[in-house]
Amino acid sequence: MAWRGHLSRNLKELRFLYCQSSPGSTQTREFVHRNYKDLKTLNPKLPILIRECSGVEPQIWARYDMGVERYVRLDGLTEAQISKKLEELVKAGEELKV
Question: Which residue of 54, 59, 83, 96 shows the fewest CB atoms closer than 10 Å?
Fold first, then answer.
């Protein structure tokens, strides 16, 4: 899980979008609840934004250098799968730097 400390090296901003009440957003809400403190502690200067909106599909958005953004839909994913998707977004930031 060393990649968690590299978020601020590879990302300019991280956004979680999800619905406050829909069953499809349950795992994303739990992931944020359990992991936000750890991610923020390891990356204190990285903006980690939480956006709750009724009826929205759960997603993670990553903003990289030069305004490049990528997102991943999280509907139906488990917490472990969400963590894997976040790791993939972080590693994509490394590739964009090369």
Answer: 54
Q: Are 94 and 64 in contact (CB under 8 A)?
A: no
pTM: 0.91
Q: Dump pLDDT digits (tens) for 23-34.
A: 999 999 999 999
In the structure encoding, which two tokens stand for residue 22, read together?
A: 């829909």
Q: What is the Rg, in whole angstroms, of the alpha carbon atoms belonging to the chain?
A: 13
Across the chain, mean pLDDT equals 92
| SS (HEC) of 19-78 | CCCCHHHHHHHHHHHHHHHHHHHHCCCCCEEEEECCCCCCEEEEECHHHCEEEEECCCCC
Domains identified in the chain and CATH numbers: 2-97 (3.40.30.10)
Is residue 61 within 8 Å of residue 17, measured between CB atoms?
A: yes
